[in-house]
Fold this protein.
Amino acid sequence: MTLSIAGRCARTGQFGIAISSSSPAVAARCAWARAGVGAACTQNITDPRLGTVLLDRMAAGESAPEAMAAVTSTEPLVSWRQLTAIDQNGGTASWSGERTLGTFATAEGPDCVAAGNLLAHSHVPLEMVGAFAALPRDDLGGRLMAALAEGLRAGGEAGPVHSAGLIIVSDVPWPVTDLRVDWSEDPVAELAALWRLWRPQADAYRLRALDPSAAPSYDVPGDEA
C-alpha cells in the first residue's frame, strides 16, 4: 500500500522522505525525520511508534543498521512491518517482514533507501534509488520528488495511490518542509505542485522564526509598510 524513499543531502545535512500510498494521509503515519539524526519510514501494516524508536536509537549513537537490527529483533509484531532508516552519516537499513503485503522490495543506495509493498513490479524501489542518485547537485526535496515520480513511472503500486507527502528537516527542530496531500486521485502530481510553490519560500519561513528583522516581508494585504 506504500512507496517511499528516505534520503540525506551530504552537502547540507538535511534529511527527508517522499512517500505515497493508496491509503489516506500516509505521511502522518509513516514518515519520520529528525534534524541532525536521520529519517525513518514505517509502512505496510503501520506502527507509527517504530519511526520514533528508530530515530531515538540513532540519536543515541547507533547507526541505521544497528538501530534496525535492534528494533527487528525485539518488536513482537515486526513480521507485519516494512521499515527503512538512514542515519547522520548516510548509512542505510531496510526490513520487510514475512507478512509484508503483495509484491514488495527495498533498495539502498548512496544517501538513500527506498521501499514499497503491493508493488506492480519488484524493481520499483531500485528505479527510485537510481533517480535520486542521478541528481547529485539538486536540493534534497527535488531529488526526493524526482525519485517518487520515477517510482510511479516504473509501475508504482499495483493499484492507484491516493495520498502523498514530503518532509524535510534541516538545522532547526521543526521540519522546514512538511507538505501533504491526504486524499486525491493524483496525489503525487498535486504534491509536486505544492513543492514548486513552497520551494522558493522555504528558507524565508525558516528565517522568520530565527531572525524576523532579516526575513523577507510577508507580501500580503496590510503589510505594505
The chain has seven helices and ten strands. The two ends are 50 Å apart (CA to CA).
